Amino acid sequence: MYAQAFFVAVFGLAAIGFGVVVFRTSSMVRSALALLFSQTAVGCMFLAMQTEFLGVLQIMMMATEMSIMAIFMVMFMMDPGGMGGMDMTHQKRFSIGAGVVAAGVAIVVAFWADWGPVTAEAPDAAMQTRALGMELLGRSMLIFETAGITILTAMIAATAVAIPVQTTANIADKEDTE
Amino acid sequence: MNFVIVLLALLGSVWLLAVVEGWTTTGRLRPAAPLLSGLAHLGRESIVPRTPDRVFFETAPVLLLIVAVLGAAVLPLAPTLVIADLATGALFINAALAYVLVALIMAGWGPNGAYAMIGGWRFLGQLIAYAMLIVMPITAVAMRAESLVTTVIVGSQDGLWNIVYQPLGFVLFFIAAMALAFRAPFDLPTAPGELGGGVDAEYTGVRLGVLRLARLTLVITLASATTVFYLGGWHGPLLPPWAWSLIKTLAVAVSMLLAGRYLPRIREADLMRWCWTLGIPLALLNIIVVGLLVLVVP
Amino acid sequence: MIEVTKDLPRSADGLAMDWMEVPFGPVFPGLPGGLKLTLTLDGDGVTEGQATSLVGMINESEEGKEIDAETFIERLASAMPLASVSYRLLACLAIERAAGLENDSATDQARAVALECERIASHLGWLAQTGRQLGFAWLTDRAATLQLEIRRASGKRLVELTPALQALAARLGRTPLLKSRLKGIGVLPSGTAGLSGPVARAADDAGDAWARLWQRLDEIITSLDYIKATGEPGLPVLRNIGRGSGTGEATVETPRGEAQLSLILEHGQVKSYRLDTACSHHIGLVAKLVEGRELGDALVAVGSLDLSPWEVIS
């Protein structure tokens, strides 16, 4: 019990620590990977809380996602290495305010909400995986499938929008600029 | 105790693989060569390039080694000889190996060099190509075993190995595993002829030693995964279970090594195109076929 | 952000990124030593590039300094380490013509066989280099072994090596991934100016790296057939020219294309000379070949030209 609480706390603090690094560095790759390790720490918290499947899934998904985010940040930012001394921050006052308010709300909810009775003994990992599968392909199937298809559609649509349309007008335009 | 035994088996396999690698490239069988070159790496100066991202530069080789060992931790050598027999073993190995990408991006970005950086980002493209071909064949394997536990997966192949039950899945997984281990012909991130070593290019001395050890360990881990998922793990006559696991793992690792010798490096665009237009449909077909077999054949 | 990026050059995908100028060579595993390729990279795409030779000859003989004919031949041959027999032959021919010597058919034949031998060896050297560039270890080993054997071989031994060379070509035809790697890369259509040698002959076919590979493999077999029909190779040695004078011009089809030498001979001393080689023209094609290509494809395209930096005359 104490060991569990200890590990949850350690990974929780690590998650916060890496979260802080995200905003304290001007290197885009460092920022993205710090976010990755923050999320990995959250995955480890899941593991410490005996939800093995969710933890492993979180750790797995974030590696790829954050790496892809890193390459987009490198592509789009002017000073991806943070060595040019460019200031990347803006709207400081607003974001500090928003951050403090959000943190306050989260803390208030955490302490005041009724979380229900504490589970004395978590079911073992294999049972959890099975239960999760049953849930995903039973009651919640419609929700997850809808969400999945929506994300897929959004991705295809975004790609389609990003591909420049080859019309005579913009070919001529391109030739003008050259 | 298991931890020590599995780690020693891993080290032993890495050593054997390094000996075989030396044998195929130089034509001489020198059992001491890996140890000597390892010692030589310790003695050489380990240069840090100018204005590096020091954290990434130092972390990358170690991270690669750690993820390779973590991946091996869930793979059983014998029914009880496994470091962690997780309920989500088949998923865990994916999670661990996803960090190969993170390590390579770090190794690419860290040294502040053009060759390394291109190599690192190239591997991201490579991941987009191979990732689905790792996950989807494993899905079909888990379907047959009706479990994600690696020991149960091996148990499910008692009598009929998965290489016979789902040969398509085996072929796809084998190719994708080679791409994951960035062995030739999928060595796009290192590509000596194109990037002069790529992510390896800026590493020297002890750091390069760790990086090489990590790469070989990664190959062994993936060969071991192939053995567990498709080649019936420890099953085999006469010899003890752990011996069968090691023999199969080494055979897969050596065949990965040899395949690269006889093939030119694949083009990045071709890899991407073939994986998505051919590989993924085939992987889906494999899942459907296995699904039907699981339902129809008792 | 728009203010910062608006004046930056755009790549084909319309994204403004930092372009990097990256040197490849003069010592790079995938390129012949001495060749320096400077590529401007946009991600892993090449926006522009150019090749220069760091070891090439200079086409001016030192003013007022005459060179002994024998010394001239030795110098020219050792200045071109990748095709020394061809240039030795070229120098011999030019000097002999300047001295007014008639052709001697027996000598010519032995010299031609030596030239064909070198062609085979040179093409095998290129195959080994290509194998190194493509990470195709087997090809590197095999081609390098055969190249060494050819360089040491007599005419009879060469004929014995024929099956091995044919097997190499057949093996390359069967190798998976090789065709997709080379097909359509580095296309030089047949109208391109300045082509010569295997590159020009391959241009009549598809003109890509794949066609150049097969052109060289075919030339290996053709040369073998010629050697089989003709006889033993003989290293070109200058015949007795006495203290002849005059101007001479000779052309030799070296493994990399046509080389032309014209010189003025005075009392058995070379007074001045002009050398023109295929590589000097081919190196200028690099800029067009690499532009807009993916890095790996660009390097394959440059490699398929078989540039010898020593044979680039500036």
TrEMBL record, chain B:
This is NADH-quinone oxidoreductase subunit H. Pfam families: NADHdh. GO terms for biological process: aerobic respiration. GO terms for molecular function: NADH dehydrogenase activity. The keyword ATP-binding does not apply. The chain crosses the membrane at residues 60-84, 90-111, 123-143, 163-182, 216-236, 242-263, 275-297. Belongs to the complex I subunit 1 family. The keyword Secreted does not apply. Keywords: Membrane, NAD, Transmembrane, Transmembrane helix. GO terms for cellular component: plasma membrane. It comes from Marinobacter adhaerens. It is found in: Cell membrane; Membrane. It is a multi-pass membrane protein. Its main location: membrane. PANTHER family: NADH DEHYDROGENASE SUBUNIT 1, NADH-UBIQUINONE OXIDOREDUCTASE CHAIN 1.
